[in-house]
Each structure stands twice: as structure tokens, then as C-alpha cells.
């Protein structure tokens, strides 16, 4: 369970949905966020099949997430590979670094990839599942076999399929297809990853498989599993948890916000901020006050414009003040976040601090205003 998980971006194409979330303190180091969609259904006219992706730079390292729904049916293994290659060719991003999906330092590829189990008949497959003899099925898995012959799959890795095939079930049950079609069970739902310019394999640790880049980036998979408890679909959901480790290339936020540990009264509600030399500021930028646990950059309690005045051009440090109307009428833990209009994201945050402004404090301020008037 994450302390704060605001959304970074999202992309949808009919039944395909990709959501990217991040802990709040990572937000200032996620840059160059872009999304793409590619339709492959009905010759590229329909989005029931295809891919949606999101890419970004994370602490200076490029990462791409690609969610695909590839063609169905046993005999369409070649078509699945053709569609995958078509998606990779069509998805191009702006900028000089990592213009294509496979140009990224790390790629996560997942979704209903629809690969099936070849050669073995239904009874052999079901017997292997019942007796947990998964290795004999791995050898006939179309995706595993394609890795040996398809150049485009070079470098893609996947954790061991130690769970039962996730397709096809009678809806509402854990029983494989009993309809007239009697689809053979298969691992259609997959999660793979790829590292650019991989170094020699580092082996597998006790807690999961590990792979690394020559630049020092490492990906560790902690688990890879299905969820049999969900019965609303003829597929079973699949999930995985990874840890990414890499040396910082970018470790200074574009905007640094300075705030006191506590705001005890309206007069304390001041924030100072300074910007990195390469930051492109907009007059539509603002600083929001967020309660710990916020889920979106618009979930602020209050905000103030970080307006750029002529006198600001030569200042290294700037200041904003929150008025009574922008403050919560009670206590709690909050953070400040600087929202960049040009980049459409939060580019600077504070550590959590306390706001302890009581009703008595508000009454005192109002009384002072009355006396001064």
C-alpha cells in the first residue's frame, strides 16, 4: 500500500486501459511523459486489438510501458507477432532520446497477448495442469517458442509460469471452458520486460529473477502470479511486482519548495521556492496545498498562482502566501506541490508538514481585520 499514489498518465483504446501511478516524491523526477495508441483490429481501423503505451524519463532513465491485445485463436501465432512488430513500428515518441518503444532503457510489455499451447491435446494439457507439470507446457507455449526464432523478441524476459493457465474459464467459476468450443487452456495473459544493452545474466536470487544493464540498472521481479478468486471474466488476472534500481542521472527537482515544519496560524502560510536554471516557467503555474493521501494534481485543498513578475527575473528565490480562504479549517498532514502548466505535471514537492490552524486563530485574524478597517 503506497502512502501517496497520484496518477502520472493514462491511455485508453476501447477495452485497453493503461494507468500509471507514482508515489508523490517521485513526481518531480518523472519527465517527458508521452502516450501512444495503435489500432490493429480490422486492418488498423478498429481498436479492439492493438496497443497503448506510456513512456517517461525516471531519474534520467527512459522507461516505456506497453499494453497489448493481440489476435486470438490457436492458428494466429504468426499474426500475433506481425501485429506486435506493427505496433512497435508505429509507436514513435517525440524527442531525441528513445523515439521508439525498444529504444528505452527499460520496457514492460504486458496484456492479453493471446499466445496458446501448441501440439498437445486438451486432455494432456489438463492433466499437466492438475498435476502441476507446468514445464512440459512451457515447451509448447507459442510465446516461449517464438523467443527462439523472432528477432524482435530478443532481450525480452519473463518470470516462470508457475501458475495455471489463465484462459479460458466458464464465467463465474474456476472451471476451464465447458462450452461447445472447449478452448484449450493457455497462458494468454503475460507480463514481460526488456533491458536495452543487457549485460551477462546475473542469475536468480532467492526473492526473484534479476537482470541488469551495463549502466548499472537492475530489474528484480519479486513475484509473478494469477488471481483465481476473480470470476467475472473468462480470463484470470495476472500481476507482478518489480523493483527497479539505477544510479541517479537526475536528482535535483526542477522546482525546490521550502516550507516550515508547521503552520500554526494564517501568518505562517508562506512558501518559498527556487527553480533550476533549465526550467521553463509559465504564468499559469501554481502551488497547491495537498492533504497527505491525494490522488490527483487537482485534489488540492487550496492553491496560489506562482505568477512571474518582471522583478522576478533576477531573483533566485521566490515567495507565495496562502490566504485564509486557501487553508483547511482544521489540522492535518499536508504537502505543497508546484504544478507546471508547460509540462502538465507536478515538478516540485515538499516533505509532509503539519497544518494546525484552529478556529480561534481564524477568529483572531478576522478581528484584526475588523480593527484595521
UniProtKB/TrEMBL annotation:
Gene that this sequence comes from: inpp5jb
Q: Which family does it belong to?
A: Belongs to the inositol 1,4,5-trisphosphate 5-phosphatase type II family.
Chain ranges of the Inositol polyphosphate-related phosphatase domain: 2-251
Organism equals Dicentrarchus labrax (European seabass)
Q: Which PANTHER family match?
A: INOSITOL 5-PHOSPHATASE (PTHR11200), PHOSPHATIDYLINOSITOL 4,5-BISPHOSPHATE 5-PHOSPHATASE A (PTHR11200:SF127)
Pfam families (UniProt xref) = Exo_endo_phos2, SKICH
Give any Gene Ontology cellular component: cytoplasm
Q: What is this protein called?
A: Inositol polyphosphate-5-phosphatase J
The organism's place on the tree of life at top rank: Eukaryota
Q: What GO biological process terms are annotated to this protein in UniProt?
A: phosphatidylinositol dephosphorylation
State the InterPro entries in the record. Endo/exonu/phosph_ase_sf, IP5, IPPc, SKICH
Q: Which Gene3D superfamilies match?
A: 2.60.40.2840, Endonuclease/exonuclease/phosphatase (3.60.10.10)
Q: Which GO terms describe its molecular function?
A: phosphatidylinositol-3,4,5-trisphosphate 5-phosphatase activity; phosphatidylinositol-4,5-bisphosphate 5-phosphatase activity
